[in-house]
Specification:
Layout (H helix, E strand, L loop, with lengths): L21 H17 L6 H7 L4 H5 L5 H23 L6 H14 L12 H11 L9 H6 L4 H17 L6 H21 L14 H14 L2
């Protein structure tokens, strides 16, 4: 069941907040679905406009281009993960238990309803797995970083790296380990389904226990 949470996204990513109108919400909902169907390379605002029975001009009133729409969608996912980590680790003092909760939250977010009914959790997660890195693996990454496009991902990574340092204050690579955990969850979910010879885990019927165990083994051995 969706809960009432307002996800805040960098205003530089949009012309008008899509969460504020019915049309904006349809752009988000159907944009996720169409990007999943076509891939970001073949996705266009013209095709999205036809899908929602609107005009390209109406979509441009919300987003300058499809790249910013993609960054917005990926940012929404990462902000939702960060919110859930904050919520789930509230009042937890033991760093080892915190790390376990972080890992479970990263993985469980795949299965948890998003804060709003118009965003399908499975579709959004599929988009993050298949298209997520394309949001920041771009030639303009440095300029976009200056504009704060990747603030949500950096804040999430900072949150996790801080908890890793609670586990071992002398550990020299907390940021790298945090980003590895985030990438590991998505990459090995993808590998288990599509390229099983690239991973040692299996995910059957949304049973992600092996994935969580692998991530725990990785971080606890690394930070010893």
């Amino acid at each position: 069941m969706a809960i009432s949470v307002q996800i805040s996204i960098n205003k530089n990513l949009y012309q008008r907040d899509p969460q504020s109108t019915d049309l904006g919400q349809r752009i988000i909902q159907e944009g996720i679905a169409l990007i999943n169907e076509l891939g970001i390379e073949s996705f266009t605002f013209k095709k999205l406009a036809a899908r929602i029975n609107s005009t390209e001009a109406s979509i441009y009133r919300y987003f300058t281009n499809k790249h910013l729409l993609l960054v917005y969608l990926v940012s929404y996912y990462w902000e939702w993960v960060r919110f859930r980590i904050d919520f789930n680790t509230m009042n937890v003092e033991d760093p080892k238990q915190k790390i376990k909760i972080v890992i479970k939250t990263i993985v469980d977010t795949i299965r948890m309803a998003t804060p709003v009914a118009y965003i399908d959790r499975d579709a959004l997660h599929q988009l993050v797995i298949f298209e997520g890195t394309k949001a920041y693996h771009v030639k303009e990454v440095d300029e976009e970083n200056k504009q704060g496009f990747f603030h949500t991902l950096k804040m999430l990574n900072s949150k996790i790296s801080g908890i890793i340092l609670e586990l071992n204050p002398a550990f020299p690579y907390p940021k790298a380990a945090a980003s590895d955990l985030l990438e590991m969850a998505n990459n090995h979910s993808y590998y288990a389904e599509h390229l099983p010879t690239l991973t040692d885990i299996k995910i059957e019927k949304e049973n992600t226990e092996e994935l969580e165990q692998m991530m725990e083994y990785f971080i606890f051995r690394l930070t010893q």
